[in-house]
Amino acid sequence: MTAAILIWRGTSSKRVKILVIVISLLATLSLVRMWADVLDLTSRGTISAALGLAVPIGLAGLGGLWAERAGVVNIGLEGMMILGTFGAGWLGWQYGPWAGLAGALLFGLAGAAIFAVATITFGVDQIISGTAMNILGLGFAQFFAQVAFSDAPGGGPTQSPSIEALPSFTWSFISDPLVDLHREGYFIVSEIAGFVSGVFFRLSILTVIAAGLFFASGYILWRTPFGLRLRSVGENPHAADSLGVNVYFYKYIAVLNSGMLAALGGAFLAIASSGVYREGQTGGRGFIGLATMIFGNWRPGGTAAGAAVFGYIDALQLRDANGTAMRAVVLLGALVLFVLAVLALRAKKYQTMFALGVISAALISWFLVTTNLPKEIALVAPYLATLLVLAFASQRLRPPAADGIPYRKGESK
């Protein structure tokens, strides 16, 4: 671990730093798995479940990223996700899963258009209009679900009839041999085998689409003239306007994309995760998506990493029958916080170092005196992890300079 920190501090290459992070995390996971004697920590089932749980959160976060890179804070992601679940359930039940996807996108687009008109054209406060969007999305879905599904076979006022599944695939020739290798318990090797086997096990086509959207967003926003103009609108819209950039156009495009991405996350919940629309299905994932976007420093890669962390912890607590796996997560969190404390010490951030060190010591002590984690604590562990990460990541974050600031053409700052 010390060697990894020295390599990190001594290199400026982004790829080398990413490689150091990946190897360090694998080594830490391997040590925790051996110490806690919990093989399921990186099993095929855990990784596959984590991917499924991370996708809707990641898509919501990616939607928030598009909007905020253009200077619009989209608090209404949760409402747009809800609209996506309803659109997927309504059209998916009648015409199949691909029509359900199209329905989710259309409903998300409609919600985003209402939000965009309110915030961009009429200048309504973005937090207020986003909150109103969440209320509108929830109320719309509840009302029309009763109208559309109450008399449908297999449906009800809070649930749609079942939706046909989208294609998914398992590459058994890759996944199955790696499962056997994972069970051998080799240091780091078993972790790599578990991750790779989980990726190629029951992989939904929607997960592949989501991964493609992350890569496409990174390329469009950072590698194209269109992306440069859109990001300039979020940094300094008045300067962008003086150079001939149509600020309103780029804000509208960003917000509409934001709504469709959030709705696609809702469609994943309705079609891929459960096969039905169900009231309350989003469970606050739109808000969690915003948190992962902030954790990821308004970048697609960081947002994906944040969603993966949340999905992984959520998968473990769902699969953990006796609390032993979540107990191992306590140890994992303690070791990660210890490394962050060392980095804070080297950066001479003594208050941060002290806080991280105290929390790390408390978690290790808790791990040593318990044999399992109470179910009540395990249920909220993903949310606690999100808050903890955000609390200590805030010092390195840099949002777009004009994020959340209303823009009026011709007005001074």
Detailed description of the structure:
With 413 residues, the protein is mainly alpha-helical. It has a domain at 43-309: ABC transporter involved in vitamin B12 uptake, BtuC (Orthogonal Bundle), CATH 1.10.3470. Helix content is 74%, strand content 1%. The protein has helices at 2-10, 14-36, 44-69, 77-95, 97-121, 126-149, 172-183, 189-199, 205-223, 225-235, 237-242, 247-274, 285-295, 300-319, 324-346, 350-369, 375-393; strands at residues 168-169, 203-204. It has a two-stranded antiparallel ribbon. The model has no long low-confidence stretch (mean pLDDT 88).
Q: What does the secondary structure layout of this molecule look like, with pairings?
A:
Blueprint lengths: L1 H9 L3 H23 L7 H26 L7 H19 L1 H25 L4 H24 L18 E2 L2 H12 L5 H11 L3 E2 H19 L1 H11 L1 H6 L4 H28 L10 H11 L4 H20 L4 H23 L3 H20 L5 H19 L20
Antiparallel strand pairs: 1-2
Spatial arrangement of strands, main beta sheet: 1-2
- Indicate the low-confidence ranges by residue numbers: none
The termini sit apart by 48 Å
Number of helices: 17
Share of helix, binned: over 70%
Instruction: Give the total of beta strands.
Output: 2
Q: Tell me the major beta sheet.
A: 2 strands, antiparallel
CATH architecture of the domain at 43-309: Orthogonal Bundle
Which CATH top level class of the domain at 43-309 fits?
A: Mainly Alpha
Derived from helix and strand composition plus strand pairing, the structural class reads mainly alpha
* Molecular shape: globular
SSE string, helix = H, strand = E? HHHHHHEHHEHHHHHHHHH
Radius of gyration: 22 Å
Average predicted confidence as pLDDT: 88
Topology-level CATH name of the domain at 43-309: ABC transporter involved in vitamin B12 uptake, BtuC
Percentage of residues in strands: under 5%
